[in-house]
Amino acid sequence: MKNMNEYLLDINCSLCESIQNIIPKKAIQKRKPWISSASLALIAERNMYRELNDLAQEKLMSKKIKKQISKDRQRWLDDILEDGNCKAIKDFKHSSKKKQLQANLKDAAGIEIEAGNQAEEMAAPLERNQWYKREGCEGFRRSFLFTEDL
Fold this sequence. Notes:
Blueprint: H1 4-22, H2 37-51, H3 55-83, H4 87-96, H5 118-129
Helix pairs in contact: 2-3
């Protein structure tokens, strides 16, 4: 007779098998312009070893991938330099930059705070909650630093 854990393992295995059969695997896409089809093939092979939990082969394939991608990048740069057109490098550099949207700060009521007042508005909660002088807590006495004996 099976216990509850064995039933749960059976259900989990059934769900995993169903998911693998129904949901298609995501195709490997190159994210950099210099990645070649040979590199993509090595990545696919490494993913296969990952699924098989073969850590030694996975590590070996990762090293091969790094070397292949380095060669691909060098070949890509050499081709661009032969053409004399560095626009591709500039385009890649500009496209890879993450454009960070800067949102204006808002107070508790949801009203936007002007740029000149943002530092004070950010400090106000800290003054109320952390930086105030607590009763019965004198903290460190610093008066000895500024004695007249100096």
